[in-house]
Design a protein that fits this description.
It is a single chain. The protein is α+β, with helices and mostly antiparallel strands. It folds into two domains: about 55 residues, no CATH class; about 70 residues. It has three helices and seven strands. The chain is elongated and about 65 Å long. The N and C termini lie far apart (about 65 Å).
């Protein structure tokens, strides 16, 4: 049964409104009784329960879970080309905190100096492992000069595995 919060003796949802603020609260039946629906029928009390306050306290994030989230954060930079400065933006921080309050976003310096270096080393290792079994490779080069007179050369390797 749903009604506006009142001073009844029945238990209500543990989230309480601010003083003087009207809110929608769900009445919970006392243990062992049944709740009645809007049509007056009995509803079993097994589907209704009161949540303990400990379920609202965020738990600390484990090391494995943090590394997984850090990896997804690096994907934001390496796959989606987002700037590293996004970790300093308050909107991004609020968004991540809303998703998981236990996750501490690394600083921009940690992201660029530690996490990016580790991601580069991992990617380099994967490329070297792929190249281990290659017998022949075709190299293509492309050279150009930028508008600011800086020279560039790209080397692309093609192989069949």
């Amino acid at each position: 049964m749903v009604n506006f919060a009142t001073n009844s003796s029945r238990s209500v949802d543990p989230v309480l409104p601010e003083p003087g603020e009207a809110s929608l609260a769900v009445e919970l039946p006392e243990e062992g009784t049944t709740a009645s629906s809007t049509q007056g029928e009995a509803v079993p009390s097994t589907s209704l329960h009161q949540t303990a306050i400990t379920e609202y306290i965020p738990k600390k994030m484990g090391l494995i879970q943090k590394k997984k989230v850090d990896s997804k954060l690096m994907g934001l930079f390496t796959k989606d080309y987002q700037p590293f400065s996004i970790v300093n933006d308050s909107g991004f921080r609020n968004f991540v905190h809303a998703l998981n309050p236990a996750y501490e976003i690394p600083s921009r310096r940690t992201t660029t100096n530690v996490m990016l270096t580790a991601a580069y080393a991992e990617a380099n290792e994967k490329v070297q492992q792929k190249l281990q079994g290659i017998k022949t490779i075709c190299l293509t080069t492309d050279c150009w000069t930028s508008a600011s007179n800086e020279s560039y050369m790209a080397v692309t390797g093609h192989f069949i595995n």
